[in-house]
Protein: CRE2A protein
Amino acid sequence: DLDECAASPCKDHQHCLNTDGSFSCKACDASCVGCTGEGSDNCKACASGYMKEDEKCTDIDECNLPEKVCVKENQDCVNTSGSYKCVCSEGFEDKDGTCVQT
Structure:
């Protein structure tokens, strides 16, 4: 078997998987910018919203940062994978970008 992966035939956001007589390109983990294999522990660099922790790229919980990211009144932060979103608190709804009582 020839290791086609040695020639790096895959795109930057993929890793190469050598198979018997061939190869396949697999997508890198969402937490990676470039990778050498499967999973968040094989990232070349971490994607935006992720940081290297115990040799893995892990999600940054923007909602637990010392500096508040959702600064509007009656607004809560919801952490998402690699990011966050600001939503109106319970009992409030978004009216033209302001959280007003329902």
About this structure: The mean pLDDT is 95.
